[in-house]
Design goal:
- The structure is a single chain.
- The chain is of the alpha/beta class and 299 residues long.
- It has one domain: Alpha/Beta hydrolase fold, catalytic domain (Rossmann fold, 3-Layer(aba) Sandwich), CATH 3.40.50.
- It is built from 9 helices and 10 strands.
- The protein has an 8-stranded mixed sheet, with helices on both faces. Strands 7-8 form a two-stranded antiparallel sheet.
- Helix 7 links the parallel strand 9 and strand 10.
- Helix 1 packs across helix 2.
- The chain is globular, with a radius of gyration of 19 Å.
- The mean pLDDT is 92.
- InterPro entries: AB_hydrolase_1, AB_hydrolase_fold, AB_hydrolase_sf.
Length: 299
Amino acid sequence: MTDPESAPQPKPDYCQFETPAGVLEGLCWGRHEDPPIIALHGWLDNAASFSRLGPRLARYHRVIALDLPGHGHSFHRPPGESYEMLDYVRDLAQFLECHAPEGAILLGHSLGGIIALLLSVAAPDRVRGLIMIDSLGPLVGDAEHFPADLRKSIDRMRGGSRGSLPVYADPEDAVTARMGGRIPLTRDAAEVIVPRNLIQSEQGWSWVTDPRLRYPSMHRLDEAEVVACLSAVAVPVLVVRASHGLLTYKREMMEQRYVYLPDYRILDTPGGHHCHLDGRVEEISAGCREWLEQRMDAE
C-alpha cells in the first residue's frame, strides 16, 4: 500500500476573493463544502509557502492559502499608504466577514501567525482555532526607542523605494538572491516561494511584491499589549515550534508568553523558520491533522 504522505500531492485551485480593500488571490486545496482553514504566509513570502502543508491538511478541510496585500498576486495599497501590521488584521477581518462568515481555523507562519493571533482577538466570532508556525506574537518596541523608530520609518517613506527593483536574467538568479535575504531561505523553500513573487518584462525578471513592504514599521506593540492579546485568545492554539526557528530568538521572552494562552499545545519539530517547507513536513502535517480532528470531535 502506498504511504499517503509520500504519494503525489494534488495541485491547488487558483482562487481570488473580492474584499473592500481589494482583490486577494490565493491557492486552495480540498472540497468547497468542507470547513475552511485560512493560511497566512510570512513576510515577503506568498501563498505558495503552503504548497507542501496545504494539500496534506485538506482531508476534512478546505485550505485557502492567501497572498497577503502587497505580496504574490494580491492587491497593492494605493500611493501614500503603507503596510502596518494592524492594517493586515483589518484586511483579513473583512475577508472573513465576506468569505468565512461561519468562522475558520487560522493557520499562520511567521508574520501570518502574528496576524492570525491578533485577528483571533479582533474578530473572535470568526475564528474557531489557531495554528501558528514558528510564531508567537510580534517582536515588541519600547517607549525609549519610539521617537527614533518613528523618524526612521517616516524618513524611509519620504525617500520612497530608493532606486529601481533589481532585475534578474532568469528565475534561478532570483532564487539565489532570495536565499541570501534578510531571512535566508534554503534552496528547497526558495524554489517553492520565489516564482509566485516574480514578474517578467523585456528587461528580465523582477519582484512583483510591493517595495513598501520593506519600510520600517511606524509603531510596534509593547509587551503588555502582546500579553493582553495572548490572554484574550478564546480558541485552542497549536504552536509549531522549530528547533532552529525565530522563536529561539529572545527565547526567554517567548517562553514566558505561553503561560498567557488559555488553551494551547506545542508541536516541536527539527528545522528552521520555514520548517513547513523544508523540514519534516509529513510529521508537522500529521501533528496538525491530529489536533484538527480532536477539534472536530470536541465540536
